[in-house]
Amino acid sequence: MPSLFRFLTVVAVIAGIVYGVIFALANFVNPKPREMTVTIPPDKFLKK
User: Fold this and answer.
1) What pTM did the predictor assign?
2) Three-state secondary structure readout of the chain
3) What is the distance of C-alpha 16 from the center of its chain?
4) What are residue 33's phi and psi, to 5 degrees?
């Protein structure tokens, strides 16, 4: 039984670290806005 608790503790610590990294990326990293141009071929506008 102690090995199960050790395993669950390790999994919980790893999950906490992953959650912390995702939280930090979501809140502290700001993407640079930039303009985007998409060319759409004219045949996409034709109804079939």
Assistant:
1) 0.58
2) CHHHHHHHHHHHHHHHHHHHHHHHHHHHCCCCCCCCCCCCCHHHCCCC
3) 15
4) -70, 140
Rounded to 5 degrees, what are φ and ψ at 34? -145, 160
The residue whose two tokens read 């990294």 is: 21
Looking at residue 37, the DSSP 8-state letter turns out to be -
The pLDDT value given to residue 34 = 93
Measured CA to CA in angstroms, residue 18 lies from 3, 5, 7, 13, 21 at distances of 23, 20, 17, 9, 5
Total residue count of the chain as it appears in this document = 48
Per-residue pLDDT of the chain (48 residues; tens, 9 = 90+): 789 999 999 999 999 999 999 999 999 988 889 999 999 888 877 766
d(CA 2, CA 25): 35
